[in-house]
Specification:
The protein is mostly helical and 188 residues long. It is 74% helix and 0% strand.
Length: 188
């Protein structure tokens, strides 16, 4: 990596890498060429996703390997897929482990902070999701992330962020609604 990553990008990369590792391992576990279009499409989509994600975190060399594998998938070149994918998966695991942010031990026991601020900003994110306003939702999330919250609150914020990255506004809004409807207005 040639530049520092913010925690949000690093956590998003780790989640995406874990999903792609599982998907590609399943394709290879079949032990035969992914002849059916669905299996081959799963391979291509996941390699393509990692190509972009790796470039976003400064792993340009590994991104180029993903690019070659994507082309192999497009060309149905099972020999190249079978030969190069295991090494790619190992390199991806190493990159994931290197990029994975450490735990914030000092924040684990953090108090709920300001419950009114928490509620106000969650409602702002929810309203922005209903309006499909990604920028406003991200801005409100960033304000929340500037404060110290206990682990469950940070997990919720990370889940909402991940859904926004994929434009899953309805799911992000539903997560917030669940939290608010549960009567738990604090970050705990």
């Amino acid at each position: 990596m040639t530049f520092p990553l913010n925690r949000q990008i690093a956590e998003s990369f780790v989640r995406d890498a874990d999903k792609v590792l599982a998907a590609l391992e399943a394709v290879l576990a079949a032990g035969k060429p992914p002849d059916d279009d669905e299996n081959l499409e799963t391979y291509r989509v996941n390699v393509h996703a990692m190509k972009s994600a790796l470039a976003n975190v400064g792993e340009d060399g590994l991104s180029q390997v993903a690019r070659r594998l994507e082309k192999a998938g497009q060309g149905r070149d099972w020999a190249a897929i079978a030969a190069e994918t295991p090494a790619f998966l190992e390199a991806l695991r190493l990159a994931r482990d290197r990029i994975k942010p450490g735990e914030d031990e000092g924040r684990e026991g953090a108090e709920a902070g300001d419950p009114e601020f928490w509620r106000e900003k969650l409602l702002a994110v929810q309203a922005s999701c209903a309006a499909y306003d990604n920028r406003a939702a991200e801005d409100a999330l960033e304000e929340l992330k500037l404060k110290s919250w206990p682990r469950p609150a940070r997990d919720l914020l990370n889940d909402i962020t991940a859904h926004l990255l994929h434009s899953d506004f309805e799911i992000a809004a539903a997560l917030i609604a669940e939290r608010l409807e549960s009567g738990c207005l604090s970050a705990k």
